[in-house]
Amino acid sequence: MPGPVVVGIDGSVHAWRALDWAADYADRRQRPLLLVHGSRALLDEGTIPPDALRRLIAEREDLLNEARQYALKLRPEADVETRLVPADPARTLVEESEHANLVTVGSRGQGGFEGLLFGSVGLYTAAHARCPVLVVSRSAAYPSDAPAEIVIGIEGVDGERDFIEWAFREAASRGSRILALHAVGGEFSPRRQVIEDLELSEALAGYRERYPDVAVDQLVSERTPARALVEASEHAGLVVVGARRRRAPLAGMALGRVNHTVLHHARCPVVVVPNRD
C-alpha cells in the first residue's frame, strides 16, 4: 500500500512511544512520516479571543516541530512532514488513513486484565481506518529491544489473508518469527488436536513458500482467543489481528470482542489490519 506512515501526536508520552515504532517501520519500509495533530480547540468559531487562538495554534505547531526533531534524531535521513488540523483528532486520523500506508497511535495501556486501558481516539481510529493501524502503549519496548516474535490469531475462516500477509511481510522485514495461534476456548481430544493443527496449517498454506526466511511456530490453545492472544503478547514484539468491514457504508470495522480485549490489554504493540474484501 502506498502512502506515508501517519502518527497521531498529542503531546503525551504514549504518542512519543508510538513515534518510536512509526519511525522504525517507516525506515524499514522506506516510507515518509507524517506527524498529525488534530484538535477541535483550534476551530475559529469565535469562542475564544483571536490572540488566544493564535497562541494555541503556535503551541500546537511547536509540539509538532518538537516531534519532528525527535523523529529526525531517530532517523536522520527520514522524510518527515507535519500537519495541524482544526478538527476532531480521531476523525482526522481516519481521514489521513485514506492515503496512508500505516496509522500509528499511542494507547494508555500498562498490560494485564485490570481495566480498560485504550483511549477513545485510538479505538475509533482502529475501527474506522482504511489502512492498518499500529497501537503502541507507553509500556511497550523500544522497537530495537522488542522480542523477535509476531503473534497472529488465526480463526480459520474466510477473509484472513490480508492480515496474515501483512504479518509475514513485517516478520520478513524485522527478522522475526511468526507464532500462529489458534484458540478453541475449551479442552479438546487428541483427535481434535490433529484436526485443528491441520486446519491451522491450511490457513498458512503458501506463506511459508513466499517467505522462506520466516520461521513459523503453530499453537492450538485451549484458552479463549482473547486470553490466549493477551498471554502470548507477554513474550511477543507485536500482535497482528484482522478486522472485517461492516456491511453498512461508512460503518467502519467490526472489531469484535476479541480485538477489543487485545487492544485494551495486550502487553506489546498491536496492529489491526482491515480486510479489503
UniProtKB/TrEMBL annotation:
It comes from Actinomadura geliboluensis. InterPro entries: Rossmann-like_a/b/a_fold, Universal_stress_UspA, UspA. Belongs to the universal stress protein A family. Coiled coil: none annotated. It holds the Pfam family Usp. SUPFAM superfamilies: Adenine nucleotide alpha hydrolases-like. This is Universal stress protein. Residues 4-136, 150-274 form the UspA domain.
